Amino acid sequence: MGRIKVEILPKFEILDRQGKAVIAALTRANVTAFKSVRQGKTFYLETEGPVTEADLEAAREVAASVLSNPNIEDVVSVEALEDER
What we know:
Elements: E1 2-10, H1 17-28, E2 41-47, H2 53-67, E3 73-81
Antiparallel strand pairs: 1-2, 1-3
């Protein structure tokens, strides 16, 4: 079995309310090392066998058309993961 990781973040010009809330909470907790936070989402897609280039291409297409909202989000990465088991 193979695994593909897809990471999606809000576009930089879009207000990231969750990221703003996290940075405010960090500031209240006296954590001042960070200037900002962007919060996104991660998907793990499993394949029947080892991840092929065709699987990665299909994951890129799905990420752009189904997993993300292209008006407000960017697909940041699509990558095959090593078998961790």
